[in-house]
Q: What sequence folds into this?
């Protein structure tokens, strides 16, 4: 059986990308999903069975809210403060959505569907195409996703779009996705996330040939100051 590392080695992106620095929650989810993926694609039958069971449980949480499925608490747990509100925090929502979406994405696939540095915009470009090669149906799904105005709407459109990525076996970086979902929920965050996905989609590059988001962090992308300056410049 082909190992995960061999699969990734054989399927490198056309142009090497550097991954955006992840937030602590993004790093945590990257680690969890990487472990799940390694187990799922493992030749060790016990590790594979355990990962398959975890992924099956996560898929049952696709339509549930954070914390509603006790069997996935160990996979979606997020540290919260003692004075956290009764409703899910931004991080709890983002982690639950990202983990359950990965489980759906990886189902019945023998290639790793979580791949570092493959942002949502990059994945969208691969499935939608560009110019004369554009797929109108896929473009419509992506447009609906990008124009989401609420977290619930974003979650619904993400699920639809991930099903398309799964059908085409196009991977996604779920560590970056969880950071995007957290950012989306902040005041003004949706605009920052859309701009971020747009840059990925058209793969804007700096003069040294690396991705223009190379040195960005999740906090940089969605910092209050960046948002304020961006909105101010837009008005001007």
A:
């Amino acid at each position: 059986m082909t190992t995960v590392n061999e699969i990734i080695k054989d399927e490198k992106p056309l142009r090497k990308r550097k991954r955006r620095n992840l937030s602590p929650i993004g790093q945590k989810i990257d680690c969890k999903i990487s472990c799940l993926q390694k187990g799922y694609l493992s030749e060790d039958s016990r590790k594979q069975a355990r990962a398959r069971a975890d992924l099956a449980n996560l898929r049952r949480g696709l339509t549930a809210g954070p914390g509603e499925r006790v069997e996935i608490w160990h996979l979606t747990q997020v540290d919260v403060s003692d004075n956290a509100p009764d409703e899910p925090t931004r991080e709890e929502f983002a982690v639950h959505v990202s983990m359950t979406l990965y489980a759906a994405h990886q189902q019945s696939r023998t290639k790793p569907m979580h791949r570092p540095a493959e942002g949502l915009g990059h994945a969208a470009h691969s499935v939608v195409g560009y110019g004369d090669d554009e797929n109108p149906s896929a473009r419509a799904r992506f447009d609906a996703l990008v124009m989401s105005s609420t977290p619930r709407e974003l979650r619904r459109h993400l699920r639809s779009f991930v099903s398309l990525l799964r059908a085409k076996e196009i991977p996604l970086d779920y560590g970056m996705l969880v950071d995007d979902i957290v950012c989306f929920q902040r005041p003004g965050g949706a605009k920052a996330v859309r701009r971020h996905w747009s840059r990925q989609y058209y793969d804007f590059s700096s003069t040294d040939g690396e991705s223009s988001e190379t040195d960005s962090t999740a906090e940089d992308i969605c910092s209050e100051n960046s948002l304020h300056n961006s909105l101010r410049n837009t008005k001007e």
Remarks:
- The two ends are 58 Å apart (CA to CA).
